[in-house]
């Protein structure tokens, strides 16, 4: 399970990604109520994800985050010095005891991109209390190449991805002599 939290001056969000042993991916994005620090948003994202995992009946879990502070506090490598983090630390520690086995792993930010994107999405959407929305996230979208003889004066973007889903090739071509039909 990957989690991330983000806080801005206009709101906060959490992103959670569950990956099953069969590589099925479940993604969730949550708007967090009220303004908070980024570390509080990170803890809230973790607490939400732990509640969800326990609710799904997950008993063994690997947890990944790009927050070195949160992971190291939960591993008792770092002391929780900020008073506003103490209740979140306690709740997360309590929830972690509900699993038969759990490992906490700090990862680089680039390996936590999906959870980060979901947290940022929630912050950007800033839904009202009780409001929900469903946003399908597609694995890939490849635009067909445009025949330059049929299109004048348009911008075209060609995107190809690898099986791993990484962006392999992205080009922006400007066709000056053709126009895209409406």
TrEMBL record:
Domain of life: Eukaryota
GO MF annotation terms: nucleic acid binding; RNA-DNA hybrid ribonuclease activity
InterPro entries, A to Z: RNaseH-like_sf, RNaseH_domain, RNaseH_sf
Stretches assigned to the RNase H type-1 domain: 1-124
Protein name: RNase H type-1 domain-containing protein
Organism whose genome encodes this protein: Sesamum latifolium
